[in-house]
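Late entry, written up from scratch paper. The run itself happened at the end of the previous shift, but nothing got recorded in the book at the time, so transcribing now.
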Amino acid sequence: MAWLLLMVLKRDGQKYQLRHYGTKFEVTVLSKEQNEFMKLMPVKSKRDDSKAIVSPMAGTVISVSCKPGDEVSEGNEMIILEAMKMQNVLPAPKNAKIKAVNCKAGDTVLEDEVLVELE
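Output as recorded:
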């Protein structure tokens, strides 16, 4: 007879956090009907953020240092975003030309919101 050592760390509805020999696993337990419905759910496609500056958190735009048509170099300061009384500088991820700026100083933005589009 083989023994399985498994510890339940946390349970939240149908979601469990388990530990097996030091490794954590997150699992969801579904009924047969729920599993069949999950197969019908569309898969959310991953957005390509390689040509965008995306807000890492919800906050307020303090300043925008670029406008459409500007050429920017990797690391240039593009936007200053304030969240929880801390200012975060969002730099250009690569050398690029600005296609669109979707925010202005004073705007409140959400996490994962596209702030600047690059060409």
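The two ends are 62 Å apart (CA to CA).
(Scratch paper discarded after transcription.)
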